[in-house]
């Protein structure tokens, strides 16, 4: 294997098995354990790999209501609102977006009462001009990751 695509191949191998040992990664990529360790450290330092975490099935854990919130926010309050949403423990994703709304936030809740209480608390901020909340009926694809492309892919 050439080192030209090693970082991408290493990321792709970890996407297949995030718990793979350095030794098994080295064998799969046909390089030394030291090389894998060095490249992995570089990827972590560069922020390409931000951590290692289990994939949680929130439905199985009792959080089976997913809500997608769209918010229109006063321009100068955008950073404050997005930070508040980001810090909310049940918000999975918070995006500043173009279009009719300024923010899209996706949250997981135990039930509709839990969702309703928390969303009401979030959207009562006077800097939120308008909100629209949709409840997800079926998650066709969620939290998917994809392999990085190499010239060989």
From TrEMBL:
GO biological process: response to amino acid
InterPro entries, per database record: ArsR-like_HTH (IPR011991), AsnC-type_HTH_dom (IPR000485), Dimeric_a/b-barrel (IPR011008), HTH_trans_regulator_Lrp (IPR053535), Tscrpt_reg_AsnC-like (IPR019888), Tscrpt_reg_AsnC/Lrp_C (IPR019887), WH-like_DNA-bd_sf (IPR036388), WH_DNA-bd_sf (IPR036390)
PROSITE patterns reported in the protein's UniProt record: HTH_ASNC_2
Any one Pfam family match given in the protein's UniProt record, by short name: AsnC_trans_reg
Positions of the HTH asnC-type domain: 3-64
Keywords carried by this UniProt record: DNA-binding, Transcription, Transcription regulation
GO cellular component: cytosol
Molecular function GO terms recorded: sequence-specific DNA binding
Record lineage: Archaea, Methanobacteriati, Methanobacteriota, Stenosarchaea group, Halobacteria
Keyword Zinc-finger appears in the UniProt entry: no
Protein name in UniProt: AsnC family transcriptional regulator
């Amino acid at each position: 294997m050439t080192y030209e695509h090693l970082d991408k191949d290493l990321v792709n191998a970890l996407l297949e098995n995030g718990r793979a040992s350095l030794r098994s990664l080295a064998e799969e990529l046909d390089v030394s354990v030291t090389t894998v360790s060095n490249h992995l450290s570089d990827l972590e330092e560069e922020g390409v790999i931000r951590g290692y975490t289990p994939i949680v099935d929130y439905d199985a854990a009792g959080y089976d209501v997913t809500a997608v919130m769209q918010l229109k926010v006063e321009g100068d309050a955008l950073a404050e609102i997005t930070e508040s949403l980001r810090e909310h423990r049940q918000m999975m994703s918070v995006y500043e977006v173009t279009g009719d709304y300024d923010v899209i936030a996706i949250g997981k809740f135990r039930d509709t009462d839990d969702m309703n209480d928390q969303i009401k608390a979030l959207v009562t901020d006077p800097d939120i001009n308008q909100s629209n909340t949709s409840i997800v009926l079926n998650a066709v694809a969620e939290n998917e990751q994809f392999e990085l492309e190499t010239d060989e892919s």
